[in-house]
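User: quick one, fold this
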Amino acid sequence: MGIGKAVAARLIADGVHVVGVDVNAAALASARDELGPRFEPLVGDVGDWEAHERAADAAQAAGELAHWVNNAGIDWVGAAHEIDAEHIERGLRVLLLGTMYGACIAVRRMLPARAGSIVNVSSIQAIAAFPRYFVYDAAKAAIVMVTKSIAVDYGAHGIRCNVLLPGTVETPMTYATLPPELDRDEALRREGLIAPMLRVAQPKEMAEVVAFLLSDRASYVNGAEIVADGGATARCFAYPGIDVEGGS
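Assistant:
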């Protein structure tokens, strides 16, 4: 619905056949209507190994499996003193295990051709903790090391793996986290203040980075952490901006 659909649209524009996996059948049907026949919807839970196998089968039935994107997220809030084992396990199942399952299957399917590019979508919360995101922060940090491990093990076999760390992006998941007492535009404006660019990102901006990393244009990029956050992690505190003649 958010970054995933934007990535699909960007790749389809390049002539790629995209298999999109989601637990939300209605959202997949809507995406299919919007994106056209090059988008193949597949209802499945990324927390199930079998869903990734089915996705790989569908992709290979349509042609060579050259690209794989692991992009699944849920807003999983809770500090260490507030949560229990079930909360941890449910969160990690989607936020981390799904990416690990997808990466394992992608590598196995790509090895015979000795070629392929994998992109994992993490978050700036992999490198900077947000309050009350104990499980989410840990999972996103682990995805960075999942990426590096694959890059190290399979770079010599023609398979690249990189990770994208987005900042705040305007997606349905972000909408669900906004303060209910504010209208959406004002809430997004305040969310955007974390970045020196003073705005949240659009999904298509993340899709451009993913498309680059998947492509041969990034042929020597492997094991890289690509931060796309409007500069949010370049500073340690959101001090007021400097005054500049003709603006602020």
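User: anything notable?
Assistant: The CA atoms of residues 77 and 241 lie 30 Å apart.
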